[in-house]
Amino acid sequence: MILVTGGTGLIGSHLLFHLISNGNTIRTNYRTEASKKKVHKVFGYYSDNPSILMEQIDWVQADITDVGGLDSLFDGVEYVYHCAALISFEPKDFKMLERTNVEGTANIVNLSLKYGVKKLCYVSSIAAIGPSIKQKEVTEENEWNEAKANVYGITKYNAELEVWRGSQEGLNIVIVNPGVVIGPGFWKSGSGTFFTYASKGKKYFIPSGTGFVTIKDVIHAMTKLMDSNIRTERFILVNQNMTYKELFQKIAPQLGVAPPTKKVSKFMLECFWRWDWVRSNVFGKRRKLSKSVAKGLYRQKIFSNQKIKSELDFTFEDMDKAITFCCDRFKERV
């Protein structure tokens, strides 16, 4: 039995499809029936019988922050993919991020130890990787610097510490640090917002860029690592380092609109995050751009993918084809 936490998210739903399609016995947690409908939609991108595949999964309603309700998830489980997480860059959400990402991960690690799980794969993020040194490529060995991290990155790094602690107590683990994951189905969150934004023919693009990876590559890397003898290692998963301008130039034409051509200046970013702070603290509005995120947009990080390529003989898929697939699915949305 394989347990996938966070099976109703982008990575989790695609992982469920891959595992169930390959004949594995799967269990996953969910919070609401509405969240399961998103998984059904993702399955429909790749199968003519998504309902049949959905029925083959053991669905358990459970929250990873509720210790008392998690034992039922682990009965008979041998392998765990821990994908569940809260994503937010809003400083006011720090306590919620800490509860879900850090305490929730500690719960999964503790139960994996309790039930004798053979191996755990934790989905972290490049946000938990230390900053670039003298503009060199970022690798898995970069030293962590909390002062230069956003609240999401801090909690993902601290969650990794819980996983490393589990490894010291005898749990076999691997950690993956994906870049921005390009995949279909979640158009109002994560990378899906790039497609939604581009479809509106917007004129502005944010400066700098980051590391991007396709959902197929993430799933491929995770499952290969779990099937391997590799343990107690972390791997950056980045297919291409691109600017946001380059990304929009790939997406927009396929959606029938012109790509944005005006770069948001550093001055504009400085003004906006300050005004955003005022909106939040005076008028109670939700933050759209925190100071730490704004500062991170001034300079592009370049991520190395050499470790995963050399240790797994891993080959990344064609990013352009993956973006085309996402654009086609976006145009089909209802």
TrEMBL record:
SUPFAM superfamilies the record matches: NAD(P)-binding Rossmann-fold domains
Q: Where are the transmembrane segments?
A: none
InterPro entries on file: Epimerase_deHydtase, NAD(P)-bd_dom_sf, NAD(P)-dependent_oxidoreduct
Tell me which residues make up the NAD-dependent epimerase/dehydratase domain. Answer: 2-228
Q: Which domain of life is it from?
A: Bacteria
Q: Which PANTHER family match?
A: NAD(P)-BINDING DOMAIN-CONTAINING PROTEIN-RELATED, PROTEIN YEEZ
Name the record gives this protein: NAD-dependent epimerase/dehydratase family protein
The organism encoding this protein is: Flagellimonas halotolerans
